[in-house]
Amino acid sequence: MLGEPAHSASLVALALEADIVVKFVMILLVLASLWVWAVVFDKAVRIVRLKRQTALFERAFWSGTPLSELYRRLGNRIDHPIALMFAAGMEEWRESPKALSGEASERLLGRIGQVMQLTMDREMRTLERHVGTLATIGSAAPFVGLFGTVWGIMNSFQSIAMTKNTTLAVVAPGIAEALFATALGLFAAIPAVIAYNKISTAVDGLADRLGSFADEFGVVVSREIDTSRAAA
To answer: Is 114 part of a structural domain of the chain?
Structure first.
């Protein structure tokens, strides 16, 4: 017993002394955890920025500024979804004939709503990119960690069979490596599930807000069309 090498109880030592399969599982789970936090940081920053830009644009939209003037002010600073939707709606409106009958105005409003919806869908797809991987990691990481756990325990039983020694010193290293793999799986999965739910809720809320803006823009354009028709 005195001649056997001592096993360190540190986490780094457990990872370094683990079986090659358990090491691969640990590396995979660490990379998954880093990916989760990278996606969380990126989406959190973008969502906060988009919410602020949306609030500022809505304030400018309802400030009483004419739509043509607001469109001119945007210039080349169209870099967020609500501004892109507004620009798409304005371009469709500006390219339409000025004198419209009732049926033609209805078709115009339908086209404006459609181009704004397409713009919103495209921007939401961009915002939702990589969010699905959080759900995948959240559901798969515990099972990957469990696979490492099963493999480590199997190695522990093989050590017992080979040494014919049932003392705790023989099986403890393998069991510790196995449990560490499980812990890494949970460490990757729990933040992934929480972040997926939070980000999905925030994205859905932003999509509802943009959808409401599209409806509001259609109401304003309809009012402008009615005013032009009455003046004519």
So the answer is: yes
**Whole-angstrom Cα distance, residue 189 to residue 136?**
9
Return the pLDDT at 2.
40
Domain count, the chain: 1
Range of the domain at 77: 12-231
With respect to residue 147, please indicate whether it lies within any of the assigned structural domains: yes
Instruction: Please name the residues in contact with 193: beta carbons below 8 A apart, sequence gap of 6 or more.
Output: 134, 135, 138, 139
For residue 30, how far is the Cα from the chain centroid? 19
Residue 4 lies in a domain: no
CA 168 → CA 21, 156, 186, distances in Å?
A: 22, 10, 26
Alpha helices in 95-167 (DSSP H): 102-127, 131-163
Q: Which two tokens stand for residue 59?
A: 């304030």
Non-local CB neighbours of 220 within 8 Å, separated by 6+ positions: 67
Expressed in angstroms, the distance from the first to the final Cα of the chain is 103
Cβ atoms of 137 and 186 closer than 8 Å: no
Q: Using the structure block, give the residue that is written with the tokens 């304005």.
A: 90
Average pLDDT (36-42) is 95
Output the DSSP codes for 47-60: HHHHHHHHHHHHHH
Looking at residue 101, its pLDDT comes to 65
**Residue 197 phi, psi dihedral angles, 5° rounding:** -65, -45
Residue pointed to by tokens 């090491």: 23
> How many C-beta atoms surround the C-beta of residue 20 within 10 A?
8
**Structural domain includes residue 6:** no
